[in-house]
Automatic annotation (TrEMBL):
Protein name (database record): DUF4134 domain-containing protein
Pfam families registered for this protein in UniProt: T4SS_pilin
Keyword Nucleotide-binding applies: no
Transmembrane segment boundaries: 62-86, 98-123
Lineage, opening ranks: Bacteria, Candidatus Azamiibacteriota
Signal peptide: 1-23
Keywords on record: Membrane, Signal, Transmembrane, Transmembrane helix
Length: 125
């Protein structure tokens, strides 16, 4: 019974604080960040096909950085597995497979970077 009342007390406090956090003067409007009342309804930063291609290439570039970083970290992990295997054949096989997949991941990241560079060169002409 004490758990139920303590849970209700915590929930009551949690819901009471949201009314303070969401309080707003009634005359204010909700305007997204970076805009003013004068610029509402104007077009965004993507106005041409070139802008769209640039945004997509930036997204691919970001994902390629993530894949490359993850592949390097997994390569380091495979190295640690090789060092700590102590002659155990299953651990060596696991480390070898992880290292192989991390090398494939690095190759995919390099290809993605080159895809971004080639696409930017083609589409910005």
């Amino acid at each position: 019974m004490k758990k139920f009342f303590s849970l209700m007390l915590v929930l009551a406090f949690a819901f009471s604080f949201t009314s303070i956090a969401l309080a707003q003067a009634p005359i204010q409007g909700i305007i997204p960040g970076g805009t003013t009342a004068d610029t509402l309804g104007t077009s965004g930063s993507i106005t041409t096909t070139g802008d769209l291609v640039t945004k997509i290439m930036d997204l691919i570039n970001w994902v390629a950085w993530f894949v490359g970083l993850a592949a390097v970290v997994m390569g380091l992990y495979a190295g640690i597995l090789f060092i700590t295997a102590a002659g155990d054949a299953t651990k060596v096989t696991t480390a070898r497979n992880i290292l192989l997949y991390s090398i494939v991941g690095i190759a995919v990241a390099v290809l993605a970077f080159s895809l971004v560079a080639i696409s930017k060169a083609i589409f910005t002409l």
